[in-house]
Every structure is written in C-alpha cells, then in structure tokens.
Fold each of these.
Amino acid sequence: MKYGLCLEMAFTDKPFNDRIRLAAQAGFSYAEMWFVDGTFNGTDCSGPGKDPDAVRAAADKTGVTITNTVVGSPDGSIGGGLIDKSRRAEWLARVGKTLAFNSAAGIGATIVCTGNEIPGMSHEQMVTAVVEALKPTVDLAEKAGVTLLLEPLNTRVDHAGYLVTTSDEGADICRRVGSPRMKLLFDCYHNQIMEGDLVSHIRRNSDVIGHFHSAGVPGRNEVYRCESNYPFVIAEIEKLGYDGVFALEYTATTEQTASLRDSLTYLTGKGA
C-alpha cells in the first residue's frame, strides 16, 4: 500500500511547502492539499494562495508526490458546489482555475464535493443536478489529464446538510457520469460514521474507487486509537488489487511527527 498525508491537517504551524519536507521526514512519499488559492478555513479563501511551481519544486526536492487538490468547499459556499444550477458558471470557472494549478504543479487529481442540500428540491432532483454538473466538469478534467474524486461526507458530526453521505450513492453517481476520470474518494472516517461495514462497501464499489482517506472514529484523530481495524481494512483493499494511495487526514493528539510515525507503524507493521 502507498500511504499519503493531508498537509492541511498536519504541521499546520508551518508554511505549506515546509510541510512537504516534514511529511517526507515522517516517512510519506505521497501528500495532498486542499484549495489552490489558500488553506480552507471555513469562511474565506482569499489568501495569497499557493504557487504551483514552488509546490512542484518542493515535492521534487523531497521525492514526495502531491496526489490531489480540492475544488470547492463541502457546503458549496466557496465555488458554488454541484447542485445549484444558478452557480454553475462559478463552479466551472473554479474548476478551470484548479485544473490549471494541477497541470502546472504536476498533480493528478482533485476532489469535488456536492455542496449542501437545497430546500425545495427532492433528493433525486439534487442528485440529477450533480450528475449534470459533473459531465462538463469531467470534460474539462479529461482535457487536463486530471482525475475527479467525488467525496461522500458524514452529516452526523462534521458536515450537516451535505447531500451525498454514502459510498454506495457516491459510486452510483460516478458510474452514471461514466468516465475513467470520474472516481470515488472513499473516506473511511466519514463512511464509518454513516455506513460502517467498511470492507463490504469497499468491495462492491472497488470498480470506481480512486483514493482513500482515513482517520480514527470517534474524534478524527489517530488511526491506531479508534473503533476500526485499519490493518485488516487495508489488507482487504490490497486483495482487490487497488494500487492507489491510502491517505491519513486526521488531527494528531500527540507530537505531530511521532503521531504520524506511530500511525505508519500501526498500518504497516514496520514503521516509517
């Protein structure tokens, strides 16, 4: 298994490019980021942003592959989301900006979130709107050579009001879009909260899974302090022939580097 690290939740007291170096020192060959125009803080994304050439140079220097970015905020407040047709032009413009960054920085994927439910629309109407919005989105991604990762999220703890909350529905949407550049991001943390039974869901949706996230439940902390048996889950994923990245996206409860190295020791049995 290839292990990755979300740099937006690790070494957060350091400049972004320094986090790439620190991730490498902690034992990771893969890492990922969120917004290209600043770290998402829930309300604003108007900071100076990240420089794609500098990100590429920092990654090349340390031997770290940056796997993905994120287009817009989960609730749709930044970027418009995939549901609201009145903000479709805003969404596609943000997609274009993100894909341009990915191409310049050598990043192969970007995460797309649906946005929150819209009052007055039925669930099926909203899902249909997501599929309709993803089709021109994936057209842009195909031209850029970038893969889209659709992420279901939990509404019980972190993302009240979010539309797609299960891996089964997320996988169905990916199949309806019908492009090799349209994949499912299976986040074990979110799916443990909403569905549980992780291995069964992974098995039946393995045809469209393009990336994994993980964190401990409850708390979104270390994977070795939680209710999920992650080594077992990873072994089952490997049996399915998955050759992508299994990424850690959690808040450490101990010193950051020690926490990450302990996580790798737990997951691999051999440490960083």
Amino acid sequence: MRKFFLRAFEKEQGLEEAARDLSTGRHRDDVLEDAIRALEQDPAEDTVGYGGYPNVLGVMELDASFMDGNSRNCGAVAGVTNFLPVSVAHRLMQQQLHTLLVGEGAEAFAYECGFKPEPTLSNAQRELWERTIKPLLDARGERSLMDIVRTIPSPKKRNLDTTVMIAGDGNGLSGAASTSGWPYKHPGRLGDAPIIGAGLYVDSRYGGACCTYTGEMATRAGTARFIVVQMKAGKSVHGAVEAAIEDLSHLRGGHLRELVIHAADREGTAYVAAVNVQEPVFYQYWNEDLKQPEQRTADAVSLSFTR
C-alpha cells in the first residue's frame, strides 16, 4: 500500500505539509485534519468554513465527516455554528460514541471535548448576506423560506463545491470532508458531506470515494459507497466511477445538476470525473513517487438523465 493523497480544490493550502508529513510517517488522520482545516480557516474560500456562505437566515451551518478505512469507524457533525467542523468530526470518530451529531448536540460534544468556539462567518459574507438576501426576507410577506431559497440566484459559478480528501499512509486509508453547504440554503439542510456512504466512504481493502457539488444526488444514490463496492467486485477505480455515473443517470426529479466524483484505489490510483460541469474542475494529487503535489484536471463527463 502506497502513500498518497487526493484532495478536491485547486487551492494548495496545507498540501506541501501533507506530502512531507506522510513521507515522514505521520498518521494519515492527522494529515487529513490539518490539510482540510487549512481551507476551513481561509476567509477567501466561499464554500468551506469561515469564508463560506451562511443559510438563508444569515446563520452559518457547517458540516464535516471523517472515516478510517481500516476499522470503518466514522464521525460526522452537521449544522455546526460555532466551531470549524473537521476537527470535531475527527474527535467524534476517535471517541466512537456515535457516528453523526447535529446542531446543538454536535456543539455540546465539541465543548465537552475542550474545543474553543471560533468565528465561522466572515465579515465579508455577513455583509453580502445583508445586501442581497436580507432585503428578500424583509419584503417576503407571506412567502415561505422554501420559496425564497428556490428563487435565490446562484452567487456565482462553482459555488456548490466541498473540500474532500482521501489519504493513504502505507498502513491504510482515511477520508474527510468539510463544507458550508449550499449557498443560502434552507435552515437545517444537509448535503452529502456529513452522510457516510453518500459524500464519503473509504475501505482500506479496496479504496475510497467522495463527492462534491450537488450533494442531493450523491445522497440519493449512495454514490461514495457504491464506488467502493464496485472496486470490491473487481472493477478498476475508473470503471467503478463509470458504473456510479450510469447509476446516477436513473435518478428522476429533484436536483439533477453537477456532481464531481473523486475516487482512489488502495494503491493510490486516482480518477476524478466532473459530471455536467461546464468549466474545468481541478484537484490536487500526490504520491511518494512525486516530488511535490500536482494539480490535475478532472475528466469532463456529460450525463443525460433517464426520464
């Protein structure tokens, strides 16, 4: 089993350190936490952590998950307002208390574990919400929040991304994900990132997979675990992702939009497919044969849904 990592996002924060730490024998879980937290703390990153978009009411709700591929222990937190979430998800996995905590329960767990509250909504994002979304709420009359969420235009392209990462340290695989979720989402909305088997799944015997963009699709299809099961059945990582895309084509109704699938087998062979995404999608990859992490471009895949 080789040392490697695969991370969504073209940003490079924390990746040279991740490659160095894996090379020198640091445990993959600690490497994952640091590399994802580097993005959570970035105020310029508008889909993860501190720089992310709040929900439609202007409240930050952050989600994260963590999974160990040797034991398949996992931990996920969702709807977190006062903590950057990946470290809390990692601790939940370590404690083996539950697999998913949400809202006030997740925050109570974080306090009990000694985490200190920290800022989760940047001034820039708060001001943007006040300019663009608060007027819609003030003038809504009898309109429901659901109606407002449905009619809010996307703030910009590529605003449904998540940071996801799979890493191998020579002794096993682990994976993690973190997101602020859909921009101006309905309060309480969870995507696929905190749902083990949907947005993240790793099994050191075979490989791992994770998803970004439209989480509702991956949740409905259980896409991450589907890919790992396909590898268990003997498919290559490329073939497993292709099988997952064919499975997605049979979804009907709901949000049928873009989905980016990241997958790697147990030896670090990686494949990333950007389904129905109009612009290039980049990701970062490293293994022990490379001097430094490489930015790569996902394969663009066009998908027509069965009607």
Amino acid sequence: MKILVAGRNGQVGWELERALARLGEVTATDRASLDLADFDAIRRVVREAKPGLIVNAAAYAAVDKAESEPELAMRVNGEAPGVLAEEAKRLGALLVHYSTDYVFDGTKRTPYREDDVPNPLSVYGKSKLQGEESVRAAGCRHLILRTGWVYAGRGRNFLLTILRKAKEGAPVRVVADQLGAPTGARDVAALTADVLGCDAPPVGIFHAAASGETSWHGFASAILELAGLPATVEAIPTSEYPTPARRPGYSVLDSSRLPRETGVRPIGPWRERLAALLAEMKP
C-alpha cells in the first residue's frame, strides 16, 4: 500500500514516517514539498502519489501566534484537511487526521469522551475543530485522532524546554492549574500504526492520549525527577503567565474507546511513558 504522510518534520509526523513503514511504502512531505496553505499543491501532490492511505500530521501548531494569524491558522488547520479529505474520497483512500484536546473548553472535571460537545477557547482550537468538521463533511473514509500535550525527544516542545532551562540553571516557573495528560509523539505514531494494521481500521473520531492526568507543573517536576536533574520548579497560576491564547483548565482525554473497539494496546500511563523516553535519551 502507498502511504502519504504530511508533516514529516513535526513531532508526530517524524515518528509516523518510521512507524508506518511496516504497513507499506511511505512518502513523507514537509512544508517545502507540501504547503497545506496551498490547496492546488495538496491536490497535485496527492494525485501524483496516488496513496491508499493519507496521514495528515501537518498543522499550524503555534497556539499563541494563531491569535494574530487567524486566517492562516484556519486555512491550514480548518480548510486544508477538507481538501485532503476530498482527494481521499476521489481515490477511495483512508484519511487519518490529528486533532487536539484544545477543542474543549475545560469546564468538565472528568476526562473528555469523544461524544462530549466541543467548545474551543482559542483560534487554534477553533481551527482544529473546523478541520474535524471539514474532514467529516467531505464524506471520505476517515479516522480522526485527538491527542494533546505532545512531547518528543527532538524538535521544540515542553520536555526539551524544561531540560534546557534546568541545565542552564534558569528559573523554572510553570503553571499548576491547567490539567492534561502528557503524551509522547512516538506513542501516538505507534498507536496509529497498530490501529491501521487492524483487519478493519475504525472510522470516526477517537481520543489517543496517555492515561492519567497532571498539571504542567507536575509534568515539569516529573521530567526533572526522572532525568535526575536537581532543579526545582515553582508552581504558578495561569494568571501569572498570561498568553494571547486561552487554554482549557482541564483537557484530559478518555482514550479507552479506541483500544476497546480495536483490541490494540493503549498508550499507557503518562509518567511511565515519559520515564521510558527519558531513559532512552539519557539527558
């Protein structure tokens, strides 16, 4: 099977290029070879590749910057997935698309399920919700995976920022009143490959995050503890760390449905998965 992956330089996309190799011939694109803001380019690349599976891990991911670039964020996150979905339908291909916990407003205090009503607080969240709706409206076979608080051992992310600050001796002050589940990019990619390897991959929207929950402060503290770094983390409220984009105070995802319906192994507890990656990185 021919597989087209968009977003090869992103955290999840980089892992997907490797994880999906066991399922077929993978062609992975970056922004230079496929700019999702260019709809004609999307159509051209897909039609040239003729994939049986399209995996869209590309996104406008700058949550705060999106507040000042709403049109671009909406074009890339909201409209481009619909173009990919139209091309997938034309080819009879399956489209896998990634969404976010930020489609929710955080007013719940129990993990969000797939059938909970989205109510995004930010331009980024609104654009990602529009992307979900665009994919569904196109009528192709699709699998939308919502995840959140993604980190990896490469690129730019919260994990690497905390490690860098600790090694530099810089103060580490982290918000303690936003709750979620840190999720490794490699784990998202591995789960995706396992699900796609099923005899009949499911269609629809599913949550795909690590289990458990913590705050950003708890995440940072665990990073330093597991990495054996002596730095301490100061807990602060969101009000002391204002950002252009509003974040949900609670965005834990209930990810039990996908393993239950497919039989694949879930990602597992967030702290356990973080420990495994840090042991490999030896930071």
Amino acid sequence: MTRRADVVVIGAGVVGCSLAFYLARAGRSVIVLDRGSIGQGTTAACAGGVRAQFSTEVNIRIGMEAKRKLAAFNREVGRSADFRAVGYLFLLTTAEERDQFAEAVRLQRRLGVDDVVELSPGQAVALVPGLRWDDLSGATYCPSDGLAGPNEVTMGYAEAARRHGALIEEGAPVTALSRRAGLVSGVETSNESIDAEQIVICAGPWTAEVGSLAGLTLPVSPSRRHAFVTQPFSAVSRRSPMTIDFHTSFYFHPEGDGLLFGMGDAEQPESGEAVMDWSVLERIIPRAAERWPPLLEAQVKSGWAGLYENTPDSQPLVGPLGDGLWVAAGFSGHGFMMGPVIGDWLAQWMTEGATPVDLRSFRPDRFSRGQSVPEHHVV
C-alpha cells in the first residue's frame, strides 16, 4: 500500500510535533512517523529548562522567542505548557568563566534580554540559600528564564497538529528512503510506502542512523545523561530558580514538591541506549555536596536515563540536505527549549522560502565549509 503526503516528518518528539503543527496549520498534508511513542524518546527525559542565556546571537533570539511562545501556548495551541518563569542562575568558578558570561550578558541585553544581570557570589546565595559561594567568581541570573512541561508541550503540539489534519503514527520505524529520478521521494516502513515532496529528519539521537538510509553522514552522536528526583524537600520552593554550577555542570530545579537534579558525566560512554546507571548518582553527590550541601538531606525518589544528540559545535543541524530532504536535529541538550521555535521557523522556511531569523549557523554542511560557530553555554 502506498499513501501520499506533502511532508513526512521522521520523529514525534517535541521538534517533530511542533513542525507538524505549524506545517499542518499552513495547509500542508503531514504524516509523522515515530519508531516509538509521541514524546517518549529524548523529549521525555529532558529537564524542561527554557532560557535565553546563550553565547551566540541565534540561540539568544531562539530562547527569547521560546519564552514568548510558551507563555502564550494556550492561546496558540490550546493547552497549558506549564511554563513557570522561575529564572536561571548560572554559578561561575573561574575568572575565565566570569568574563565569558559577562560578555554574553552584554550581547543578551543588546538583543533585548532586558532582565538578565550579573551577580556577585553573595547575591547568588540570596536567591538559593545554602549555596557554598566562597570559591565562586560570579554568577548570572535571568528571572524570565524558566521551566515548562515536556509532556504538556509535546502532546499539545501533537493534538493541535491532528486537529489541523496531520497524521501521527507511533510504532512505525522508517526502514528506507525511496528515490525517484535521483530525488528522495518518500519513505518506507515495514508495512507501507509513503510518497512525499519533502521529508524531514527529526530523529534526535537516531538522526545519523536515518541519514545513512539516504547515504548521508550526519554529525550527530548520542550520549547518555541521567536525572534524579527527590521526595518532598523543604530546602527548595517551587519558585526557586534553575541553578547550574557551570564548572561541574551540576544543576537542580524544583520539581513538584521535590527537586530534580543531574550532572554531565564524562565516564558515560557514547551510547544510543538510555539504560539507567545508578552508579552515576555516586559521582554526582560529592560534586553536589560541595556546591549545595542541603542536597545531602534529600531522599532520592526516582531517576531515569535519557540521550543527548550532540554535534561537534553543540549547535543543531537545521535546513535542507538536498533532494527534498531536510533535517532538524542535533540540539545537544537544547531540543526542548528550541523545539517550539524551530518548528515554526522551519515550517516557514519550507512553505515560504525564508525564516524570520537567519539560521545559516545551523546549516548541515557548515563543518565542511569551515563555518562553525560553537555555542559555549552548554550544560
């Protein structure tokens, strides 16, 4: 059996569902295929942060727009995004980190992030009591940054896309990309073939695998990350900021009546499997105790593993691959916060030929062109 659509989107995470909504709203017929379930891949395991505190102009602009979109999510999409502007607090240890973030703050303010500020270590402690601050060189804080619900946002886009006629099919892994007259003309699953004018790879950590079906080598590699949630914990309130110790990447934020925390782990091998490794907790606790001793009083309730989709410069691949094939992947931990905006802007690019903000720094061929502009504020 062969069906037809204007666009086939491969991947039903937040990026794929956002793109499907904006394309369908623009009048395109859209089919989304996912090897698993809606939002249950990388999106389900993310920490839910949304910020404009980046080091590159394009990411700052995306962060600003993402906050606007999530604050108005119910009006545009039809349900709450559970967006809470609790703020983002970056803790800095070295003089180099302080200078790098100070330069970024100047750029952020020049672009319109009016509420971002530099703080002294003492001012940071006033926001998060119990912080060890004697070794800090400084901090930055943006109160309009915050948290949103990964499930709420992804399912909101999926439901809205369906209302506009999009089809989202779960348990439907793509097994091949078909060609006609040298152009990518459709996809194949184990059950059917679907012809399409355009195909977009939004497959997160599995992007390189899907790209190989078209004979492409896409520089996206998966790495495993872990997050943990505590029992109800009085040392943090629901209005406490997302707090990040940039030097170690230890972070924590309120989650319900408890706390969600995690940290990057250099000992984790490159892996496309989100298998839980509880030994990670043993490596996080000493670093966490050095920065925020109250965490030692908390009881861990649950934990999970998820996957980052990394590129060499920590910037996504967004744009045409040629022959009717597009990509929006490789967000290096920023897919949830960027997904609402990238879905909208990429849909405009595909339907109108241009984006509101220049995305050339995301072009998939930038590495071969020597045009990479890395993002430095990566956790």
